[in-house]
Amino acid sequence: MEKGRVSHSSLFLMRLVSGSTDTRVAAVAPKKVAKTAVMRNKIRRKIYEALKVIKPTLKPSFHAIVLAKPAMMQKKQIEIVADMRELFVKANLLR
Q1: 5-90 domain in CATH 3.30.230.10?
Q2: Once rounded to an integer, what is the mean pLDDT over residues 36-58?
Q3: Which residues pair with 66 in a beta bridge?
């Protein structure tokens, strides 16, 4: 991941490595964003739910880590999906 690219949006930071055989995306909610494990798990579930919507339009063969930013706590799921789509467009990963 240190050699990969970094993309930002208002709600997320994404570290990306391309050239792998399959596509994998991991969601991370740091303690800086949410202090309790319950809140971090909720954030991760929201990220994975947004990925389900976007996944059919993603290009294949990359690994990514999506890190949540503190602003995500107050956003609704529709806004999260829109921001994540914007993040993948910036990273040039949508078909």
Answers
A1: yes
A2: 95
A3: 14, 27
Closest by CA to 5, choosing from 51, 55, 64, is 64
Query: Could you count the other beta carbons within 10 Å of the beta carbon of residue 85?
Result: 16
CA of 31: how far to CAs of 35, 36, 53, in Å? 5, 8, 26
Start-end of H helices in 1-95: 37-54, 77-90
Q: What's 91's DSSP letter?
A: T
Confidence (pTM)? 0.89
93 DSSP assignment: -
| pLDDT tens digits, 66-79 | 999 999 989 999 99
- In 3-state terms, what secondary structure has residue 92? coil
